[in-house]
Every structure is written in structure tokens, then in C-alpha cells.
Amino acid sequence: MIPQLVTVRGHRSDGRRLRLYVPVLPLLLVLSPLLLLAVPAGLIACLATRMSLAVVPAALRGAGRLLWALPGTRFEMEQGRTALLISVR
Description:
Number of strands: 4
Strand order of the largest sheet: 2-1-4-3
Largest sheet: 4 strands, antiparallel
Radius of gyration: 18 Å
Shape: elongated
Distance between the termini: 10 Å
């Protein structure tokens, strides 16, 4: 299942809470033109470094498995007075 919503919660240094809701599908649609540029650039980089193109499907498969594993993930970070919590639904 592809994640639908990423919630980012944090505390600013002055103690106020910050909460952002990021919908995944609209973000992917907005960023998809960049993906169309990134794929040919990656293929050119593979050819320039003489890397076998056989690793490309494996890398895409790994990225897909990572994407499918994201729902339910929570990431917490604290540094000093700043705290950040990211949860994927």
C-alpha cells in the first residue's frame, strides 16, 4: 500500500508546536516532471562511469520495496530544544 499522508510534527525552539500534513499523491504529481529528467540523467551517469545497466532494475525494485514499507513508519529526532516526529500513514 502506497502511503497517502505524511505528518510532520515538531517543536520550535520557542516551544510552539508545528504540524504539517503532506499528501503524497499530489506531491508526486507535482514532482513527476523532475523524475522525467532524473531517469535519463541517471542512465547517462551509468554509461559515463561504465556501470552495468543491469543494476538499474534492481535499484528500482529496491526503491519500490522501500515505498511499500513506509506506511506506519515513525521517525523521531530531538536535538536541544527542537523535536521532530514524522509519521507516514
